[in-house]
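Sanity check. The docking grid for magnesium ion depends on where the pocket ends up, so I'm generating a full predicted complex first rather than guessing from homology. Inputs follow.
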Amino acid sequence: MKDLQDSGLPFYTPHTDECTVFKTAHAKGLPLLLKGPTGCGKTRFVEHMAARLGLPLHTVACHDDLSAADLIGRYLLKGGETVWVDGPLTRAVREGGICYLDEVVEARKDVTVVLHPLTDDRRRLVIDRTGEELQAPPSFMLVASYNPGYQTVLKKLKPSTRQRFLSIGFDFPEPGIETQVVAAETGLDTMRAGALVRLAGHVRHLSGMDLEEGVSTRLLIYAGTLIQGGMQVERAIEAAIVEPLSDEPEVQQALRDLAASVYG
Ligand SMILES: Nc1ncnc2c1ncn2[C@@H]1O[C@H](COP(=O)(O)OP(=O)(O)OP(=O)(O)O)[C@@H](O)[C@H]1O
Ligand SMILES: [Mg+2]
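Predicted complex below; grid placement will be based on this.
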C-alpha cells in the first residue's frame, strides 16, 4: 500500500472541501465530528490533516468499557511508587495536539462529562484525581467519529454532546475520486481500479435491502491489492468483497452475479 505522497503526508484525496472545514475548525478552536460508514476514509483524513498541520495525533478506539480514566489518566504502581500517568486525551491537551476519538458513541457515559467542558468555549480539561485543571492551548483539537449506520436507540449521542461539535458527513467518494484512491493505494491502473469502483456502485445499491452496509473503499483496496499481487479477479473479489460482506448464500450469490456483470 502506498502510504505517503511525494509531499511526505499520509496520502489522502479530498472528497470535497473537508480539508478547509478541518483547517478552519482547528484555527478557530472548534471540535469536529466525522460521520460516515466504515472504511470511507475518516481515519486517513485525520492522519493527513494532523500531519499537514504538524500536530501530534492521539487516536483512541472507543468501546463500551472505555471510561473517563482511560482518556484522562490514572495512578499506576511503578517500582513500589504510585505515579500519575496521563491518558491520551490529557497528553493531547498538554501537547496542543489532536485527540481523535474513534466511534465515540461506544464510550461510557462518564466520558461525555469530561468532553463537555473541553468542547465548549471553556476548553478545559478537569482532572479530578489530581485536582488539576488544564486550559487547552489554541492548537489543541478534539476530533470524534461515529458510524450513524450502527446507531441504536440505546447508543446515541445526546444532543448536548452532538451540538458541541461541528460535523462533516462522509460517504464513499464519487466514482472518479474513488478510482484515484484505489489506484493510488493498490498500484492498479485506472481501468482495473475503475472496474472495482463500478462493482462497488452496484453493490451499494443492494445495501439496506440485503446488506447492512455497502462495500467500503477499504475492501475495494483489499480486492485491488490481491489483484495487483497476481490473484485472479474472481478469487480476489470472493475473498475481499463477497465473504466479508455477507454470510448468507443468496446474498453472496447476488454479489457474484454483480461481479460477473461487471467483469463478464
Ligand atoms: N479519500 C481517500 N484518500 C486516500 N485513501 C483513502 C481515502 N478514502 C479511503 N482511503 C483508503 O481506505 C482505507 C480505509 O479508510 P479509513 O481507515 O480512513 O476508513 P474509516 O472511515 O476510518 O473506517 P472505520 O469507520 O472502519 O474506522 C484507508 O486505509 C485508505 O487506504
Ligand atoms: Mg477509522
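Relevant for the grid: Strands lie at 32-35, 57-61, 73-78, 81-86, 98-102, 124-127, 132-135, 141-146, 166-169.
Also worth noting: The radius of gyration is 21 Å.
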